[in-house]
Amino acid sequence: MSRHRTGARSSRRKRGLIRRFGIVFPAAVIAVVAVIVVAVGAKVFAPKSGAFSAVQAIEMVPGSHTMAALEAERAQLIAMTTAARTLTVVAKPKLASPAEVAAANPSTGASAGTGSGGGVIYVTSAPPNPGTAQSIAYNMMASFGFNPSTYFGCLLDIWNRESGWVYDAENASGAYGIPQALPGSKMASAGADWQTDPATQIRWGLGYIKAIYGNPCSAWAFEEANGYY
């Protein structure tokens, strides 16, 4: 009888320990995980924390797949940011300011061609073939005060580079026509047929060059130095 009671007490004692440890052990594990998460969060999200602080916080949980993924993402963002700083925007037309024009055309400097002055190069060129857009420009230049014998070569080079003298040449940014006006609708001031008439586009382009640069060779010097006019 006493043995039976002793065995019963022993069984009850074991079951009590199992119940207590079954509750305490998971609770202890949860508490440890919570402390680690709070510590990592404090390290990562603390004000003024840098890359070194984040690494220290990650090292507090070695072997964590989540932290390894976050670190890989952080490294990728750093690499993308560094790469973005090296990008160069190309083929985006810009308009020169008078200050930029003056800076690109100093009062003294070397020059060559049929004539020179103020650092501007004058490009020689034969008269163009009749019936071409170049011929229209050649014959129109005198009305803007440009001697075609002196300035046509420079104008030819500018619009060869900008549009190839194609009246419907269009840049992805919206620049249009022989002079690559941006936007193309600016040329409406020279005529309602600005989209299709080379003469209207050339008239607008010569007016723009005279207003901004003074003459086509000054515009070409700026184009050569900066890649746009």
Structural summary, described in words:
- This protein has helices at residues 2-45, 51-59, 65-84, 98-104, 133-140, 148-162, 198-212, 216-226; strands at residues 116-117, 120-121.
- By secondary structure, the chain is mainly α.
- It folds into 2 domains: 2-84; 98-226, no CATH class.
- A two-stranded antiparallel ribbon has the order 1-2.
- Strand 1 and strand 2 (120-121) form a beta hairpin.
- Helix 1 (2-45) packs antiparallel against helix 2 and helix 6 (148-162) packs parallel to helix 8 (216-226).
- The radius of gyration is 38 Å and the shape is elongated.
- The total tally of domains equals 2
Helix content bin: 55-70%
Strand order of the largest sheet: 1-2
Q: Average pLDDT value?
A: 73
Global Rg: 38 Å
Distance between the termini: 112 Å
Shape descriptor reads elongated
Tally of DSSP helical segments: 8
Main sheet? 2 strands, antiparallel
SSE string, helix = H, strand = E? HHHHEEHHHH
By oligomeric state, this entry counts as single chain
Range of strand content: under 5%
Which class of secondary structure composition applies to the elements?
Answer: mainly alpha
